[in-house]
Amino acid sequence: MRQQPDIRDAVLRRLDLLDRAAGHADPSTLLPLARAELHRLADGWRHLLRTHRADESGRCAACHHGVRARRWPCPVWRSAHEQLIGEGLPHRQRPHPLRNPFRTTP
User: Fold this and answer.
1) What is the pLDDT of residues 79-101, one digit of tens each?
2) Phi-psi sector, 58: left (phi>0), alpha (psi -120 to 50), beta
3) If DSSP codes are grouped into helix, strand and coil, which group holds residue 72?
4) How far apart are CA 98 and CA 91, in angstroms?
5) Alpha-carbon distance values, 35 to 56, 77, 102 (Å)
6) Coil, strand or helix: which one is 45?
7) According to DSSP H, which parts of 1-106 are helical?
8) Residue 87: C-alpha distances to residues 18, 71, 76, 98, 105 (Å)
9) Which of 4, 41, 53, 69 is least surrounded by CB atoms within 10 angstroms?
10) Record's superkingdom (predicted)?
11) pTM score above 0.70
12) Can you tell me the distance from the alpha carbon of 51 to that of 54, in angstroms, rounded to the nearest whole number?
């Protein structure tokens, strides 16, 4: 069985490779890579977000831990919204947090 640091290192190496490719690869190499990686990225987010769906009580099914259960949307959904949708300024430059697009009341 592989150890978790191996998984962590493999993921970080892959992200580094993609960063280097985005910055330096020629278009004939970058275009097929980008197409494949965009599909993988979308599939990965969908899988992660399915795991973090709301349960019957309005809590995150994956973040549910007894009395400290997270209300949905959990931090994973909030991060997905920030990373995939965003609202202009990078997080650290915003004077206030992102609005909650998952709020049930106006």
Assistant:
1) 999 888 886 555 555 455 555 55
2) left
3) coil
4) 8
5) 37, 24, 29
6) helix
7) 4-24, 27-51, 75-84
8) 24, 22, 17, 7, 20
9) 4
10) Bacteria
11) no
12) 9
